[in-house]
Amino acid sequence: xxxxxxxxxxxxxxxxxxxxxxxxxxxxxxxxxxxxxxxxxxxxxxxxxxxxxxxxxxxxxxxxxxxxxxxxxxxxxxxxxxxxxxxxxxxxxxxxxxxxxxxxxxxxxxxxxxxxxxxxxxxxxxxxxxxxxxxxxxxxxxxxxxxxxxxxxxxxxxxxxxxxxx
Length: 166
What we know:
The structure is a single chain. The protein has five helices and seven strands; from the N terminus they run E-H-H-H-E-H-H-E-E-E-E-E. With about 170 residues, the protein is α+β, with helices and mostly antiparallel strands. Strand 4 (about 105-110) and strand 5 form a beta hairpin. The longest helix is centred in the first third of the chain and has 16 residues, at about 40-55. It is elongated. The chain starts with a strand and ends in a 15-residue tail after the last strand. The model has no long low-confidence stretch (mean pLDDT about 80).
């Protein structure tokens, strides 16, 4: 059983596992405990394993703390909101990635949360100009890199898709 003061424990944590294998005895002192010695060969083999096994948590500690859960950052570009209102700064024509070839109509928008993002305008034809107001939703365009939003047709200044003549 190892005992240390708080400052030396923090130093051990900062330095990492290097101290566990080499110079931990210089940082702390050992309290003698009653142990059964089977043979000197087993003692020599188990001493290095004993140092490493002290770094592992016991089953009781793991049960107390529960499983480790990583807090992953949300990949949602609108911070969890389904829609955002934005002002069109510029209309853009983006080219898709390699196998596809077309001109994707996009707009650079300043959203209500302060971000400037590129949004795709779905459908054939649009009436968007600078300073128009659009509603954008989350939905990426697979073949245009960096386009993670889509404009909602028929809301604010973006009109519905005009029916094509046959």
